[in-house]
Design brief:
globular; 137 residues; alpha+beta; six-stranded mixed beta sheet
Length: 137
């Protein structure tokens, strides 16, 4: 999946958040420690840092959400991270994002912390991020 396709898919899937540019996707997906898993209808982008992987973004095309693809892409990301030496995966999710939290719970992620006022969208109240972790070793 090209950086331009990732940026366009992000805009379609999540109209409310700040959208990353194609240049940002290109930089992150080609970084030495970058981890990208993609398919026809979505992607997971993150990075590896020693024995930990962090997910920056998981996006599924709105027409394919709630079809199980998010779980498939997430599992593929975990497998790739484990093959690269990760023993744990971390991510942040908005406290109000119940569908994403349900996905992560089904995948075995557990809450390990909270980042107060982490999300600060223009003209919106700051929102907490829940920090989730999964042991993959």
């Amino acid at each position: 999946m090209t950086p331009e396709t990732m940026a366009a898919l992000h805009r379609r899937a999540d109209a409310a958040s700040r959208h990353w540019s194609a240049a940002e996707y290109a930089q992150l997906s080609t970084a030495e420690n970058g981890l990208l898993v993609s398919g026809n209808h979505g992607f997971v982008l993150g990075q590896l840092s020693l024995s930990e992987a962090e997910i920056f973004m998981i996006i599924v095309d709105p027409t394919h959400q709630r079809s199980g693809l998010g779980l498939v892409y997430l599992s593929r990301f975990e497998t790739k991270a484990h093959s690269a030496g990760a023993t744990r995966v971390f991510l942040e999710v908005a406290a109000s994002n119940q569908p994403a939290q349900a996905l992560y719970k089904r995948a075995g992620y557990q809450r390990v912390g909270t980042r107060k006022n982490y999300y600060k969208a223009p003209e919106a109240q700051p929102e907490d991020a829940l920090v989730l972790q999964k042991v993959i070793a």
